[in-house]
Amino acid sequence: MADRSLQQIISQLRSRGSSLPFSESSALLSKAKLHLLQLNALTPNPSVSADLLTLARETYELGALASIRAKNPDAFTRYVQQLQPFYELPSNVLPPNVPERNKVTGLYLLLLLTQGRYAEFHSELESLANREGGGDSGAVEGDRYLGYPIRLERWLMEGSYDRVWNAMKSREVPCEEYGVFSEILTFQIRSEIASSSERAYPSLPISSAKSLLFLDSEGDVMSFAKQRGWFLKDGQIFFPDTAEATAAEDGTQEKEVSKMVIENTLGYARELETIV
Fold first, then answer.
1. Alpha helix stretches (DSSP H) within 70-117
2. Are 203 and 262 in contact (CB under 8 A)?
3. pLDDT at 273 over 50
4. Mind giving me the DSSP string for 134-161?
5. Among 4, 143, 216, 267, which has the highest number of CB atoms less than 10 A from its own CB?
6. CA-CA distance, 219 to 215, in Å (whole number)?
7. What gap in Å lies between CA 175 and CA 68, rounded to an integer?
8. What is the CA radius of gyration of the chain?
9. Residues facing 238 on adjacent strands
10. Is the whole-model pTM more than 0.85?
């Protein structure tokens, strides 16, 4: 009876997907987990059938996706932690649903990336090779869901913010849930570009800053400038004196790297404007 009720709940969660308000999906997920508890299937154990393990795994996967759509990273992380024992089961016990597993794992990688938890990001990547059906590094990066955060992380580390921006605005975003992180990454990229600008130049034209920061209008640039404590005069943005900070960072090399980042990003932004 509990088994059938669980199937009905999962079917409802699956069919309504993103149209289901988080409050309703949370209520359904709570009922599903109660059924799993009654069936002694909240976590994998030898007495649980493969069919029931599959239902339990799907419950947690649906919960993870609902949490991301609701922008609830704590709930999402809990679901990921609950999924790990299921993902580690050998395929003769529980055949993997690789696309769904990779979707959730890719979202978790994106979460780690947006939170600046780079050591955990790379630890998670290393663990993928040990999963059944995980494949080598080439197969992992070639996966639709896993490759996306891997590429973003590499480009962020290189300072290739233009490539990150382009990926977030294109069809490279694997699915709806991945788009949730675009706003967070956009803020991070703007902050990084702003810091690079401060290190590289004493001032910039407002028009260049608009392209550089991927802002929609010069009014948006002015608002952003005020938030950063920049000075505006005669169509120019003047950055506060950062000489002390620059000296502490081995100024010359840092400045050259920052200039390269800015020039690459500006070049991309100008190309984009000509296309549009």
1. 73-87, 98-114
2. no
3. no
4. ---HHHHHHSHHHHHHHHHHHHHHHT-H
5. 143
6. 9
7. 12
8. 23
9. 203, 231
10. no
Count of all residues that appear for the chain in the document: 276
**Structural tokens at position 70:** 């609701």
Three-state SS string across 29-52, please? Answer: HHHHHHHHHHCCCCCCCCCCCHHH
Q: Which of 189, 199, 180 is nearest to 259 (CA)?
A: 199
> Do the strands 203-205 and 231-233 form a parallel or antiparallel pair, or are they unpaired?
unpaired
Q: Tokens for 158, please give them.
A: 């290189």
Q: Helices H, strands E: what count in the chain?
A: 15, 3
- Taking phi over 0 as left and psi of -120 to 50 as alpha, with beta for the rest, 71 belongs to left
Tokens 């802002």 locate to 215
Q: Residue 241: CB partners within 8 Å, gap ≥ 6?
A: none
Contact 67, 79 (CB under 8 A): yes
27/194 Cα distance (integer angstroms):
43
H-run or E-run covering 233: strand 231-233
Q: What phi and psi, each to the nearest 5 degrees, are found at residue 168?
A: -70, -25
Rounded to an integer, the average pLDDT of 211-236 is 90
Per-residue model confidence (pLDDT) at position 260: 60
* DSSP H or E segment with residue 247: helix 243-248
CA gap 65, 82 in Å, rounded: 13
The tokens for 169 are: 């605005």
Max CA separation in the chain (angstroms)? 75
Give the number of C-alpha atoms closer than 13 A to the C-alpha of residue 169, restricted to the C-beta side. 10
Selected residue with higher pLDDT from 25 and 264: 25
DSSP secondary structure code for residue 19 in this structure? G
Do the Cβ atoms of 83 and 36 come closer than 8 Å?
A: no
